[in-house]
């Protein structure tokens, strides 16, 4: 990431959202600030064998981050059709970066992408603020 600052974990809290649990700002977050999506890197084949697995972030056609670990608070960032963050890939690392000013009390959200939305969200209906 270019000369941007990580979002301190003390500036975030996990709370109830329209999609279950979400990640909320407790302090002002500036555009460019980020949080890393962390967890063990596994093969996509291993990821496909995980039944009921959540928090998988595919890096490429071969590798996936299994973000189920409790140390990965980025796993609580929900999908939105009107995001205030975006995912950025640097090698095998994923960062969720703020793309606008985020005020305290606001949920951090990003667009999970067309493939994920079509497969997992559309069948049940999108629960983002825009679609509710």
Strand content bin: 25-35%
Query: What is the helix content?
Result: 10-25%
The rounded distance between the terminal residues' Cα atoms is: 34 Å
> What would the average pLDDT be, to the nearest integer?
93
Largest sheet: 3 strands, antiparallel
The radius of gyration over CA amounts to 14 Å
Please name the CATH topology of the domain at 9-37 and 73-121.
Beta-clip-like
Instruction: Give the helix/strand class.
Output: mainly beta
Please tell me what the overall shape is.
Answer: globular
Q: Based on the structure given, which CATH architecture of the domain at 9-37 and 73-121 is correct?
A: Beta Complex
| Helix run count | 2
Strand order of the largest sheet: 3-9-8
Provide the succession of SSEs: EEEEHEEEEEEH
Please identify which CATH superfamily of the domain at 9-37 and 73-121 we are dealing with.
Answer: SET domain
CATH class of the domain at 9-37 and 73-121: Mainly Beta
Low-confidence stretches: none
What is the count of β-strands?
Answer: 10
Task: Walk me through the structure.
The chain has 132 residues and is mainly beta. It has a domain at 9-37 and 73-121: Beta-clip-like (Beta Complex). It has two helices and ten strands, in the order E-E-E-E-H-E-E-E-E-E-E-H. The chain has helices at 44-49, 114-121, and strands at 12-17, 20-25, 34-37, 41-43, 56-58, 63-66, 78-79, 85-90, 93-98, 109-110. The protein starts with 11 loop residues before the first strand and ends in an 11-residue tail after the last helix. The mean pLDDT is 93.
